[in-house]
Amino acid sequence: MVNISISSKPPLLQQVLLQLLAATLLSLAFSWYQDWAWTTLVATMVGSLIATSTGFYFNWRSFQSDLSVNDEAAAHRVVSDVYRASMAKMLMAGVLLALAFRYGDQLDKPFLLLGFVVISLFGVVCNAFLTRADEPQ
User: Fold this and answer.
1) Which residue among 94, 98, 109, 112 has the highest number of C-beta atoms inside a 10 angstrom radius?
2) Total-model pTM
3) How far apart are CA 65 and CA 56, in angstroms?
4) Residue 26 · residue 95 · CB < 8 Å
5) What is the dihedral of CA 89, 93, 96, 102, to 10 degrees?
């Protein structure tokens, strides 16, 4: 028998708001570094929004399963949901980044990628802190 001990679903809205706040601060910092370049600000925001939207989709989709049932089928369902959500997230990120590179002629490409990577990592850290249990189980 498999015991799945996840305390609750992650607070998705709180994580998205934290990522958007971090994206705004990161964009302002990078544009200030480039002497308030508008293209740097927009490129960082576009990369950050791609990371935020794909991270939101992953979290929303992977926590759809009912975790109250403790049987083998529920465990397999949770793992398959996480794998499907992960694959969809990667495909969405690839398509959106390809579109940004293809049609974002005025965007600063290194800052677009940097915004995507930093906010993606920030989302992982946020997810880890927001879903941790206060008491060991």
Assistant:
1) 112
2) 0.81
3) 16
4) no
5) -150
